[in-house]
Amino acid sequence: MSLATTPTTAVDSAEPRPRRRGYGRYVLSKVAGAVGSLLFMLVVSFFLFRVLPGDPARTLGRGRFTNPEQIEEFNRTYGLNESLPRQFLTYLQNTFSGDLGISLKYRVPVSDLLLDRMWPTLLLVGTSTILATVIGVWLGIRGAWNRGSTFDKASTGASLTLYSMPEWWLGLLLIAVFAVGWGPIPGIFPTGGLHSTDVDPSSLAGVLDTAWHLTLPVITLTLAYLADYALIMRSSLLDELGEDYLTTARAKGLRDIVVRNRHAVPNALLPTTTVIALSMGFIVSGAITVETVFSIPGLGLLGVEALEVPDYWVLQGTFLVAAAGVILANLAANLLYGILDPRVRT
Amino acid sequence: MINEVDSFSPFLGIEATSYEAWALTYDFMVGYAMEDMSPAPALAKEWTTSDDGLTWTFDIRDDVTWSDGKPLTARDIAYTYNRVLDGGPEAVTWSSYLKGVTKVTAPDATHVVLTVGKPNAVLPLLPIPIIPEHVWKDVSEKQVKTYPAEPTDGQPVVGSGPFQLAEGTAGGSTYRFVANKNYWAGPPHVDEVVIRVFKNEDTMVQALIKGEIDFAEDISPLQVKALKDEEGITAQNGESPSFDEIAFNSGSVDTETGKPIGDPNPAVLDPKFRHALGYALDLDQIVRKVYQGAALPGDTIIPPAYPDYRWEPGDEAFTFDLEKAGQLLDEAGYKKGSDGLRTMPDGKPIGTLRLAARTDASLDASVNTMEYFKEWLADLGIKAEVQAFESNRLTEIILDGNFDAFQWNWYVEPDPDSMLSNMTCDQRGGWSDSWYCNDRYDALYEQQHNEMDQAAREDQVKEMQRILFEDSPYLVTAYTAIGEAVRTDKFACFQSQPDPGGVWLVQYGGHNYSSVRPASQAGDCDGVESALKPTSAAEDSGASNGFWIGVGAAAVVLIGVGGVVMLRRRATVGERE
């Protein structure tokens, strides 16, 4: 995670300091920072995609818009014939009034498109992230506490193997075995998609059907994400193992499990919190490879496919959503740290 | 390449899957014949032309109703065409078919009258989906650019075609179409057609084997080979009217001033040089190695699917003959120097030819073709290097004229007019990627466009291909095929287009959606002998059965994109009548 939020370095100065800043001012400064980043992203997202090679009317219209008038008409309809500064102004005006433009490929408002694609992504990546967090943290705790045990070796080895495996390959493997069937294993899961055509997605049967469709992709992503949490939790808990307060706790006669859960784990959770908070931010970026293998129309795929056109407004929209996700998760992590560790407020 | 539906609105969509969706939902006034893709009666029973060729009168069927029960009349047709003629977003895709048309009227419910300024040879072909006026009159000029034409409040989209879209949204992963029992040409033999989008070819093939889908569209030659061994599945590489070519910079110029732009190698500007290289291509090897056999060797820009317009090079055809190529180069002055490399006629070195390939094309055909070409050029004493670009970047390079040769492809419509126009002088800076310009070719283009005598037009079109063959702005390398596989244990009666050897779906006119039948009811497929017959005794359980089709194409990552169609057969045989 290259974007890791290190909370403002906690300096424990030897000199007595004046009073620490209040939490209110801390919040204010962090929120201002986040808003600033968002505004910056707003500008970047416009120019970033304009420098891409390609002309949407040409990419889309090959073999269809046969004469120059047709291309001109297309550009006029979607405002592509205007000068770049003019387009930038329109973009700013529209974005602030909540209008993200019209997709050049799908010809529908980008906000509709984003909302449409948001929930499959949230279901897929969100569920996987939560599952990976819970299972990963549990594996990390068990592994660290019994360091060197068979369980530790097996779980570390397995999660590392899964981590290094390409997600699409793991996905295809699961499809071949559990969707198509292999040997005695029946192919009970669907090969892809979000739901069957003959059920109403909002009914109970529809919800179960969607869950059924999402089982394999969620398993794929969960397995791929596991190592992240398991290894960080394991190493930060290992750091705590030698600490004096644990010896004290044991000396008090506490049972081993209580020493672990009440004393060691809470202290080891801090780094994991950072990683989790960031992963939450990345949920809305989607999971391109798994969305592709299982044909799930999510935000990741939307963004990548828009690059081919290039579909400027969709690119800007997905980029903004992804950036906003990370920035907000960052902000949340910072605010949480302000509570967990008052030292960062200085 | 087949992708998801980009828009269900006939005025907005561009992807092939969208055209399939409209073929299901709507009708044409004059469409395509199943057999030879020539203009064929659809909503119009017949038509007449005035002696000067400027007035066309179409006799419209009086027994057609929209799916909401309202009658479809000549007025709906005139309304559709007039929306296109009035400009705006509606004109973007369709105005080229109405080129030269000045007025469209419906004097009564069964007649449409078209007035043209000059005779137009492309008419009567008008593959524009006819939309219902009573629905679309509420869609203003401003709204049409985002009007999705999708089901609202659970009501299917109003159309007159064999199926109606009941469920689905552009860019979504499944689209469900229900049969129109009152279809004027007879009700379809299946209850539903469901198109399902797969973003990965391998997944799609797995779904076909499992039986989740019944038809997989656009799969690789290797997958076709593997699926041929599966019981109950019939697979083919279906001929499709498209070609791959090596194009040369034939003279990039600033279209305003006429001054040369870019930095083409002077050698490729010479038609004789380009033509000689035609003998330096081992097309059989390209077909075998680059396309795994799923293609035919190419020669001219009109594919074999259209025999009426296609010019056959005959004795002049390119053969793989490096000696002849060398001899032609010698004659044109490109003689070998002391270092074994050929020089320009003035003795200067040719330098290194830049062969541009596309990195995002499926099957790596682009790069591989150019790699072979490079080897053969080396045998001739010409140095070359292969440069790979992403398509959008290559487009920019082509428009700047900064290239010597590149590899690309075209999909050719049944009427040759639009493909031929791509090679005219006027299209330089537009769709002409070779920058080719020849006055005689242009004069013939105008002539054939206004020629009302079919035989004369065919001769002109052939002469144009001969000129292109001589000047060789393009060296057509292959006519490519599309991999398809169908569960013939469940569904049958697909007819190839062109027949034989052509594709089973994604055709012109969408006829197969009306003729496909459950395997158990296939019979003799209404006497169509070449139609795909069911394999093995199909089980007739009477239970609801699914017929699924998959389509794949190259995507950005290492992975494919595709769509699938599933036809749902009637619930029971008893319901059939």
UniProtKB/TrEMBL annotation, chain A:
Domain ABC transmembrane type-1 as annotated: residue spans: 118-337
Membrane topology: Multi-pass membrane protein
One Pfam match: BPD_transp_1
Presence of keyword Calcium: no
UniProt GO BP: transmembrane transport
Compartments (UniProt record): Cell membrane
Keyword terms of this UniProt record: Cell membrane, Membrane, Transmembrane, Transmembrane helix, Transport
Domain of life: Bacteria
Sequence intervals crossing the membrane: 27-49, 118-141, 168-190, 210-231, 268-294, 314-340
GO CC annotation terms, alphabetical: plasma membrane
Similarity comment text for this entry: Belongs to the binding-protein-dependent transport system permease family.
Protein name: ABC transporter permease
Classification of source organism: Bacteria, Bacillati, Actinomycetota, Actinomycetes, Propionibacteriales
UniProtKB/TrEMBL annotation, chain B:
Ranges where the Solute-binding protein family domain occurs: 39-427
Spans traversing the lipid bilayer: 546-567
Keyword Transmembrane helix: yes
InterPro entries: Peptide/Ni-bd, SBP_5, SBP_5_dom
Keyword terms of this UniProt record: Membrane, Signal, Transmembrane, Transmembrane helix, Transport
UniProt cross-references to SUPFAM superfamilies, sorted A to Z: Periplasmic binding protein-like II
Subcellular location: Cell envelope
GO CC term, one of those recorded: cell envelope
Record carries keyword Cytoplasm: no
GO biological process: peptide transport
Superkingdom classification of source: Bacteria
Pfam families to which the protein is assigned, alphabetical: SBP_bac_5
Protein family: Belongs to the bacterial solute-binding protein 5 family.
PANTHER family: PERIPLASMIC BINDING COMPONENT OF ABC TRANSPORTER (PTHR30290), PERIPLASMIC OLIGOPEPTIDE-BINDING PROTEIN-RELATED (PTHR30290:SF10)
Name of the featured protein: ABC transporter substrate-binding protein
Organism: Nocardioides guangzhouensis
